[in-house]
Specification:
Elements: H1 11-21, H2 23-30, H3 40-44, E1 53-57, H4 61-64, H5 73-90, H6 98-102, E2 106-119, E3 138-149, H7 152-163, E4 168-175, E5 178-185, E6 190-196, E7 200-204, H8 207-217, H9 229-234, E8 242-248, H10 251-262, H11 270-276, E9 279-289, E10 292-301, E11 327-332, H12 334-345, H13 349-363, H14 369-374, E12 380-388, E13 397-405, H15 409-425, E14 429-435, E15 438-445, E16 449-456, E17 461-466, H16 468-476, H17 486-492, E18 502-506, H18 507-518, H19 526-532, E19 535-546, E20 549-558
Antiparallel strand pairs: 1-2, 1-8, 2-3, 3-7, 4-5, 5-6, 6-7, 8-9, 9-10, 10-20, 11-12, 11-18, 12-13, 13-17, 14-15, 15-16, 16-17, 18-19, 19-20
Length: about 575
């Protein structure tokens, strides 16, 4: 979108910028107008059936006010500054105020993505002795906004005030008994808007999109009545204080059309499209609760096309990691995921070629990539980052820990033996020492200790550690373990259980480490550091209650405000 189009509010663009660009900041600090998530169905009745997806933004002041319970004083000051800058830049050159002119009448906003429209560029002027080549048809995605109006009189006063702004031209166009207002900023493109039923403002930079919305208002099929969409609109993603909700009734169709519009009409490869068709539809939402900002997404799958078999994890692997682990990815069945990946890679020659090259290189070392690297990783696994201020990684400040459960210990042991022999052939000193009653094999570097270590924690669990202190922490199993850590429990405890594993970050420990590394070079900007210091942690997990449903949950855990 051209920058000039954002410099000044015209009737349509004013609403776009005020809602999508600033409503979150404004309502966070000054509360906001009503318009909760229940208004999504009413707005969807004005969106054409052809819409690829819609997003509904709540403007309920009670919902947005929940954010006020979080944030450090520094973060609060930063948001105030951002608000002031937004107000100055957006309303520059005008006497328009969001608080006085927009907030009193706005009530919920739905943004719809319509199918790309085909436009033909102007004919090129060529020499008279040459025939003009056929015109290439360009496609561009259309955006349509449906803005709820809770106070018609105030909205009309706002529209009148905008028309009188310097540099703004407007005219009315009649269409099926409705008056479309065309507004144009000086040196800008026109924007079209119409008020229907005295309850909603419809606007778009494309006149045809507004006309289609009017057709929908007059009785043509709407997004609310579209097959699949009506179910999504009423589907509960189980969020408190929902801020935003997204609805995608035909996921593969949406991606295909958007990709085509962004690649000059080039269709997606058949193999990519077949992958996308595994997801039939999706609904997602963002909400605020006592823990912070939570995102939930529910994907409806085609069980006939989905090849990956989901399994919950017992989460026992978490007890193997030390309590100061500050980042973690855990899950179950790497071998199954690898089999699915290699099977699907057959449709992609470039990926297949790369895999074959890796197989060939490992085969020269007598290692089978599929059987001896991934084949035995059939149980639960965890990959974590652990603080390490000694030995090889002292300057970095952390090391890595990989823990695997397996039902095929024999193959796993054979693989580690081959890796040890390869390292020994390269001059690496391979030694074994007892830590916490466990025999730990180490790849030692003179005067710096072990770089890599591996050992069996029990009959079925093996670890690979990067950094000697990490290996000692894993083998000694000192309390508390990660699953007993207060931060881990606070950040992940509200996520759905059982689940397929975690992605977890302890933000305090991560920021401390980043600041330490930044101190050796360029420091973190104060404003970024203030925002990061307001975050307790980040966590995500996935669940699958049945073969046709996949759910994702993400939590940005925030610290309580300090007053």
């Amino acid at each position: 979108m051209p920058e000039s189009k954002l410099k000044f509010l015209v009737p349509a663009i004013g609403a776009v910028v005020a809602v999508t660009g600033g409503v979150a900041v404004y309502t966070y600090l000054f509360k906001g107008p009503s318009g909760d998530i229940s208004g999504a169905i009413g707005s969807a009745k004005l969106v054409p059936e052809s819409a690829l997806m819609t997003t509904y933004i709540s403007t309920d002041d009670q919902v947005w006010a929940k954010l006020q319970q979080f944030g450090t004083p520094e973060a609060q000051k930063l948001l105030v500054k951002s608000l002031e800058d937004f107000n100055k830049n957006t309303f520059k050159g005008s006497d328009i105020s969001y608080e006085k002119d927009i907030k009193p009448w706005i009530s919920g906003v739905m943004i719809a993505v319509l199918p790309p429209s085909k436009t033909q560029p102007a004919q090129l002027k060529l020499p008279t002795n040459r025939a003009n080549p056929p015109l290439k048809v360009q496609q561009s995605t259309n955006m349509l906004m449906v803005v709820g109006i809770k106070d018609k009189l105030t909205a009309l006063n706002f529209a009148s005030k905008l028309k009188n702004q310097k540099g703004v031209k407007s005219q009315e166009i009649e269409y099926k008994g409705e008056k479309i207002t065309e507004t144009t900023e000086e040196k800008g493109r026109p924007t079209y808007s119409v008020v229907v039923n005295n309850s909603h403002l419809i606007l778009s930079p494309d006149k045809q999109a507004v006309e289609k919305a009017i057709d929908t208002y007059k009785g043509q099929p709407s997004f609310a009545s579209k097959e699949g969409a009506n179910r999504l609109l009423s589907q509960n993603v189980n969020l408190q204080n929902t801020l935003v909700q997204v609805y995608v009734p035909d996921y593969s169709g949406m991606v295909e059309q958007l990709a085509t519009s962004n690649t000059q009409g080039k269709a997606l490869p058949p193999q990519t499209l077949s992958q996308l068709k595994q997801v039939k539809s999706m609904v997602a939402g963002v909400g605020i609760d006592d823990q912070g900002v939570r995102v939930k997404a529910i994907a409806n799958l085609d069980p006939q096309l989905s090849k990956f078999q989901y399994q919950n994890t017992p989460a026992k692997i978490l007890s193997q990691f030390p309590g100061d682990t500050f980042a973690l990815i855990s899950g179950n069945g790497i071998s199954r995921g690898w089999q699915t990946f290699t099977e699907q890679s057959k449709d992609y020659p470039e990926v297949q070629q790369t895999l074959q090259q890796i197989r060939t290189q490992l085969k020269s070392a007598e290692i089978d990539l599929d059987k001896e690297v991934f084949g035995w990783m059939d149980g639960e696994f965890g990959i974590g980052a652990v603080p390490s201020n000694q030995g090889v990684l002292a300057s970095v400040g952390f090391g890595g820990a990989l823990v695997f459960d397996t039902s095929d210990r024999k193959t796993a042991e054979a693989t580690f033996t081959k890796l040890d022999n390869i390292a020994k052939a390269q001059g690496v000193n391979i030694a074994t020492r007892n830590i916490g009653g466990k025999d730990v094999t180490e790849w030692q570097i003179p005067k710096q200790g072990a770089l890599l270590s591996h050992a069996w924690l029990d009959q079925d669990t093996v670890f690979l550690a990067v950094g000697e202190p990490v290996a000692e922490a894993l083998a000694a199993a000192k309390s508390p373990s990660l699953d007993q850590s207060d931060t881990f429990k606070n950040v992940t405890g509200s996520l759905q259980q059982p689940n397929g594993g975690y992605f977890y970050v302890d933000m305090d420990k991560t920021v401390t480490l980043v600041n330490r590394l930044a101190g050796q070079g360029r420091p973190i900007p104060p404003d970024v550091n203030a925002l990061l210091s307001s975050i307790r942690g980040f966590a995500a997990t996935a669940t699958s209650p049945d073969k046709s449903t996949s759910q994702l949950e993400v939590l940005l855990a925030l610290k309580p405000s300090q007053k």
